[in-house]
């Protein structure tokens, strides 16, 4: 069991980290502005599920495999980058064909949720970050390290849900205010596409 004071410190640190500009919160921002608050919330839930996977990876030692194997690390990051470029292409295509009379069909919750999972799981830097970050707040004298990793991972996920949920509401509100403007809609889609390309490049050139 993680000490209560340590848990509070970890939670505050996690909130600050979630607020710091990074691939995940920029992804949520772009999806919320482009597709609305509902889309952002399902993407956020997908990202949180991905974080559960990274917590499991750290607890089971799989994160160490990602760290030690250049092949696994490279495959994961290029898969993630390719997926983001695909989303960028979709956003550019929607921007070119949308009009006030014919809007793109809303994405299903399952599709949005899957986007969040893929985005998070295919970023090997998250596993490496968890592997470096979680052990700093765990203490072998307080019981099972695996149990403590799950505790800390859960706290990090809660902090992420709170911060990303706020980003979703704010970005979605701004997006909805201009939803009926064809020009603004196209502009938002193109900005989202550029964000996806930027995140993809950052991921593709990431080093261990």
Describe the fold and architecture.
- This protein is mostly helical and 208 residues long.
- Helix content is 80%, strand content 0%.
- It is globular and about 60 Å long.
- Residues 96-104 have low confidence and may be disordered.
How many helices?
9
Low-confidence stretches: 96-104
Q: How many separate structural domains?
A: 1
Q: Name the shape in a single word.
A: globular
Query: From the helix content, strand content and strand pairing, which structural class follows?
Result: mainly alpha
The sequence of SSEs as H and E is: HHHHHHHHH
Average the pLDDT over all residues and give the rounded result.
80
The tally of beta strands, per DSSP, is 0
How is the main sheet built? none
Strand content: under 5%
Percentage of helical residues? over 70%
Question: Radius of gyration from the CA trace?
Answer: 18 Å
User: For the terminal residues, how far apart are their CA atoms?
Assistant: 31 Å
Helices and strands in order, then pairings?
Elements: H1 4-19, H2 23-35, H3 37-60, H4 62-68, H5 70-97, H6 109-121, H7 124-133, H8 145-177, H9 182-204
Helix pairs in contact: 1-8, 2-3, 2-8, 2-9, 3-6, 3-7, 3-8, 4-5, 4-7, 5-6, 5-9
Brief description of this entry?
With 208 residues, the chain is mainly alpha-helical. It has nine helices and no strands. It has one domain (4-11, 24-204).
